[in-house]
Structure formats: structure tokens, C-alpha cells
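Quick review question:
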């Protein structure tokens, strides 16, 4: 049966494909607006940071062109790393190194800004350092949000990595200070404990297995060789021929005839009758 009029749901069905046909994921417009606001905010923060850095560097270097370049250096590097991080995030690739460098550049910029501030006044230090620090936080969050929006996942923030590194450094410092204090209180025991710890942490490789030649029993003595030859001799036990046999066997045992004769007589004297 042919249809003569529109069905009740036709209007809704034609509207939904039109929205889906825009190709925009939910939240894309808000993220784009935030990115443009970041650009405007970053421009203002960079101008504030550049002004403080330029004033300080110009007072030190007394060179206009060099002061401008040096004052712009950290800010331009932050822009480069920000663009790299955004590009990698849009492509769904990790950008941890770039995000860390985005934080390093504003930290160095804040330090340079504080050089022009009155370090004795916390308000003056805050006024000079707040712009690059706030910009670093916003840039990192924008990059993280774009990455989550692209991959529907969350990459650990560079602040988390920096925090973990700071905690590890604090633990190491506390450990070293604690052992220094213990060494001052009980130096011999601490030295022995550290020596034992180093020896346990660096064991020596096992000794190589002994070769077959090394496992062979050591060679017999000259006396043992002489007595073995004498016991196999036909005149063994005949005392009257002991002197002659000693002279015969002495060269084979590498002994003097007199020494060999003494060994044979001792053998005969100790032999049971």
C-alpha cells in the first residue's frame, strides 16, 4: 500500500542526520572557544611577562636588540612546545615531553620575572610570577582536555609527573639527611651497616668451576714413587739386595742412592715379618 502523507516521525528523522552531518563531536565548540580564549589570554600573559623580562635584561645588558631577543626567548619556546603538544594531541599521540617543556619554560620565565621584583615583598614576587605560572597551568589543561576529547581517554598530567618527581626527591633528601645524622651519632655502626648494604647490593659473580686438571689429586712424592717401584720389584723384602735395588731405582724416583737406600731400609724395618 503506497504512502500518501508524511509519517509522524519523519520530521525528527530528517533533523538528526542534519546535526550528525556537521561532523562535530559533542563539546567541540566549547573546546574551540576555550582554545581561542587561551590564545587571547596567552597573548596578554606573554606581553606582561615580556615587559618584566625586558626591563630586567635591559638594565643588565644595556643592549636593546639583545634584550628583546632574550626576553622573547622563553616565551617563544613555550609557544613552540604548546603548538607541538596541541598538534600531537589532535593526532592522538602522546605529548608528555612537550607538556613538561611547556611547564619548564614558564618556570624559567617566572624566575626571570622575579629577578626584577622586590624579593623582600611577597606581593611583588607574586605580581611578577603569576602570569607565566597561570599560563602554564591553563596551557597544560587545554592540551589534556583536547587529548581526552580526541582519544576519549586521559593522559597523565605533566603536573602529576612533576609532583611525583618532587616527592621522590624529598624522600631521597630525607633519607640522606637521616643517615648523616645517624653517622654523627654512631659513626662505626653506621659505617659497618653501609658497608654491609653496599656488599649485599653488589654481589660478586660466582667462581668458575674447577677444571678437570685441577681436580686431579696432586702428584705423589719422590718417596712414594720409590716405595711403589720397590714393592713391585722382584727383590722386594730381600734385605741383602736392598742396597743394590736402591741404587737401581733411585734415578727413576729422582733421589740420591743413599736417600733411596734409607727409605728402603725404613720400609723393611716397618714391614711385618
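Suggested answer, residue by residue:
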Amino acid at each position: 500500500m503506497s504512502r500518501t502523507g508524511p509519517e509522524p516521525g519523519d520530521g525528527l528523522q530528517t533533523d538528526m542526520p542534519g546535526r550528525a552531518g556537521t561532523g562535530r563531536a559533542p563539546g567541540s565548540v566549547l573546546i574551540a572557544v576555550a582554545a581561542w580564549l587561551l590564545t587571547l589570554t596567552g597573548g596578554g600573559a606573554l606581553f606582561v611577562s615580556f615587559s618584566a623580562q625586558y626591563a630586567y635584561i635591559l638594565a643588565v645588558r644595556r643592549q636593546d636588540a639583545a634584550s628583546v631577543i632574550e626576553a622573547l626567548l622563553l616565551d617563544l619556546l613555550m609557544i613552540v612546545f604548546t603548538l607541538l603538544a596541541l598538534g600531537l594531541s589532535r593526532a592522538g599521540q602522546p605529548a608528555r615531553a612537550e607538556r613538561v617543556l611547556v611547564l619548564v619554560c614558564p618556570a624559567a620565565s617566572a624566575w626571570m620575572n622575579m629577578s626584577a621584583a622586590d624579593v623582600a615583598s611577597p606581593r611583588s614576587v607574586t605580581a611578577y610570577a603569576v602570569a607565566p605560572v597561570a599560563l602554564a597551568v591553563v596551557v597544560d589543561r587545554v592540551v589534556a582536555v583536547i587529548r581526552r576529547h580526541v582519544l576519549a581517554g586521559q593522559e597523565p598530567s605533566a603536573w602529576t609527573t612533576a609532583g611525583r618527581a618532587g616527592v621522590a626527591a624529598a624522600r631521597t633528601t630525607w633519607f640522606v639527611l637521616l643517615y648523616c645524622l645517624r653517622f654523627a651519632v654512631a659513626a662505626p655502626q653506621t659505617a659497618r651497616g653501609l658497608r654491609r648494604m653496599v656488599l649485599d647490593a653488589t654481589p660478586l659473580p660466582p667462581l668458575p668451576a674447577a677444571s678437570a686438571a685441577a681436580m686431579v689429586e696432586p702428584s705423589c712424592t719422590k718417596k712414594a714413587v720409590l716405595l711403589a717401584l720397590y714393592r713391585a720389584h722382584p727383590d722386594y723384602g730381600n734385605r741383602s739386595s736392598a742396597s743394590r735395588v736402591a741404587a737401581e731405582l733411585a734415578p727413576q724416583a729422582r733421589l740420591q742412592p743413599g736417600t733411596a737406600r734409607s727409605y728402603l731400609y725404613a720400609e723393611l724395618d716397618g714391614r711385618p715379618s
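Why it works: Residues 66 and 201 are 52 Å apart (CA to CA). Residues 1-20, 211-217 have pLDDT under 50 and may be disordered.
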